[in-house]
Specification:
278 residues, alpha/beta, 14 strands
Length: 278
């Protein structure tokens, strides 16, 4: 069932990139076919910081701007990687958030000018560094994090440890605090993660800007993702696809559901909606 798609926006982790931080051969082949056999444009829209996502987008050969930080920042993939769009948290509000989240004894990541500052415990900070392939600046407490946050941060992330029996309760407490604050939005990007951005930041808002710059209408955009942070683009793109490994509430809101990442769901979606009639 081929659709009139001109642009595909992919989430990265859990959609194209598996737990081993690899692209499967079938996904790579499907992407290459789109690049060589069609005029459909391809882009990434990820929660990762720019420095973390850049090697992956380069490996795929995408050339459109890279949407990072859950839509908080978009950067061109031309020399110097100029910023196309940046919607950071307001500085005073970010400082208040850091203080409150640290008071809840949470691991907090703060992203400022594409540098990661964290108060996370060694287990969390080392795991995250390996997954993100970036070296965080580890600080001790809220005061140190606030002092390091001299510019408006692009986003904050709260992380709980996988083996923490109170992890979900800690995240619920954080959500309750965040619901009382204006000017922010928050979502989950994976189990144990809570991402906090400016209220105007979303993957879809950023993807739509890129599409408009390319002269592509929203209804000609296909979006593929696997978690709550992808819902803005899955529900508003012309063709929205949730991965089979997405949480139930995400799959329930998606117009289409493909196979899981272990069964190359992204390749299935590409073949179904773009390559069928090529």
């Amino acid at each position: 069932m081929k659709q009139d798609i001109k642009l595909i926006a992919f989430d990265l982790d859990g959609t194209l990139l598996n737990e081993r931080l690899m692209f499967s051969p079938r996904v790579r082949q499907a992407i290459k076919r789109v690049q060589h056999e069609t005029d459909v444009r391809l882009m990434l829209a990820t929660g990762r910081m720019f420095a973390s996502a850049l090697p992956f987008v380069q490996a795929l050969g995408f050339t459109l701007p890279l949407v990072g930080y859950q839509g908080g920042m978009t950067r061109a993939l031309t020399p110097g990687y100029p910023i196309c769009q940046h919607t950071p948290l307001e500085l005073a509000r970010a400082h208040a958030l850091i203080e409150q989240l640290c008071a809840l004894k949470l691991n907090v990541n703060v992203y400022v000018n594409d540098v990661l500052y964290t108060n996370a415990c060694p287990n969390v900070s080392s795991w995250y560094a390996n997954a993100a392939r970036v070296r965080p600046v580890v600080l001790q407490d809220a005061e140190a994090l606030i002092k390091a946050t001299t510019s408006p941060p692009t986003k904050l992330v709260v992380i709980t440890e996988d083996d923490d029996p109170q992890g979900e309760a800690h995240l619920a407490a954080a959500r309750e605090r965040l619901m009382l604050m204006e000017g922010i939005t928050f979502c989950s990007s994976r189990r144990g993660f809570l991402e906090i951005m400016h209220a105007d930041a979303s993957k879809w808002a950023a993807v739509r800007r890129v599409a408009e710059d390319c002269g592509i209408a929203p209804e000609a955009v296909m979006a593929v993702g696997d978690h709550e942070n992808d819902l803005s683009m899955i529900t508003q793109a012309g063709v929205g696809v949730a991965m089979g490994n997405a949480p139930e509430h995400v799959r329930a809101q998606a117009p289409y559901v493909t196979a899981s990442i272990t069964d190359d769901g992204a390749a299935d979606a590409i073949e179904r909606f773009v390559l069928t009639s090529v």
